[in-house]
TrEMBL record:
It comes from Microbulbifer okhotskensis. Pfam families: MC_hydratase (PF19315). This is MaoC family dehydratase. InterPro entries: HotDog_dom_sf, MC_hydratase, MCH/BMMD. GO terms for molecular function: lyase activity.
Length: 172
């Protein structure tokens, strides 16, 4: 395994700095990253998300109504599922910008489901206009506890190169 993939960087005996993200150069086409831990959607977390996002539709905020309409399985908001994809942040922490998101699909997710996230590197190339950055094409997906893919999309990311951007000055 490449040294840059380790979670911590030793700076002295028994002194470590937490690393966030992987440098552009260390990504390779075909790599698959599992973003752990998974995320379990509880009724409380769904209600909290709904109130914070100002989505006050009855099927989200009134669980009695939701159960009457949908039965025992209460659905999770699609925007909450997408926001949970932030589990990719530790791997893609050196992203300058999300340039594009395409081919998005989201299937129903229900309260009690646990999602596990992974991303595959589809392509990479140096940026022609930004020498300190590179461009990655990534396919990210979320699978539930039954290994069913319930969310997937392609993204194009602008990523800092090694020893460039704010990370070099910060020491990681």
């Amino acid at each position: 395994m490449k040294e840059s993939f380790y979670f911590l960087k030793a700076v002295a005996d028994n002194v470590f700095i937490e690393r966030i993200g992987i440098d552009f150069e260390d990504f390779e086409v075909g790599q698959v990253f599992e973003h752990r831990p998974g995320r379990t959607f509880t009724e409380a977390s769904c209600l909290d998300y709904a109130f914070h996002s100002f989505d006050l539709t009855p099927f989200v905020t009134d669980q009695v109504y939701a159960r009457r309409v949908y039965g025992d399985r209460v659905r999770v908001l699609e925007t909450f599922i997408l926001s949970a994809m932030a589990h990719t942040t530790k791997t893609f922490g050196k992203v300058v910008a999300n340039l594009e998101m395409s081919e998005c699909k989201i299937l129903p997710v229900y309260v009690g489901d646990t999602l596990y996230f992974e991303s595959e590197i589809l392509s990479k190339r140096a940026s022609k206009s930004r020498p300190e950055q590179g461009i990655l094409s990534v396919y990210s997906r979320a699978k539930n506890q039954h290994s069913e893919c319930v969310c997937a999309y392609k993204r194009t990311l602008l990523v800092y190169r090694k020893n460039c951007g704010p990370y070099a000055a910060a020491g990681y």
